[in-house]
Design a protein that fits this description.
Layout (H helix, E strand, L loop, with lengths): L5 H11 L7 H8 L8 H13 L4 E3 L7 E3 L6 E5 L5 E4 L7 H6 L12 E4 L2 H6 L11
Parallel strand pairs: 3-5
Antiparallel strand pairs: 1-2, 3-4
Helix pairs in contact: 1-3, 2-3
Length: 137
Amino acid sequence: MLKYSRQRESIQNFLANRYDHPTAETVYQNIREEFPNISLGTVYRNLNLLAEIGEIQKISTGAGPDRFDGNMHPHYHFICNHCGCVMDLSVSGLEHINILASQNFGGAVEGHVAYFYGKCPTCAEDKISLPHTQKTS
């Protein structure tokens, strides 16, 4: 049984009310308002523990820091290749993926994770083909 922690509960509550998929650093900066002496290491440990026990999702973007999501309802994520934002993506009709994956597999498929990549609405509107970086001349 997991020992109760006010800090862990605060981290989980912070994530439950957000939809921007913050980094550990963002969580740390905000949790410090309630717990001024909390360390970044404590925030990382609690985020990883919460993800490990299935209370939050850890999103590895492939570039940049991991992001965290308090929404545990089944949903997909979009990762912008240009600005790095992570957004919830509403996609219906993909429930059959587990069935398709199970057809030629001797085990039991219980779920899946899929990330979608491209340009977020803001980057697509900018019509910029290169990642958002400061240009050097």
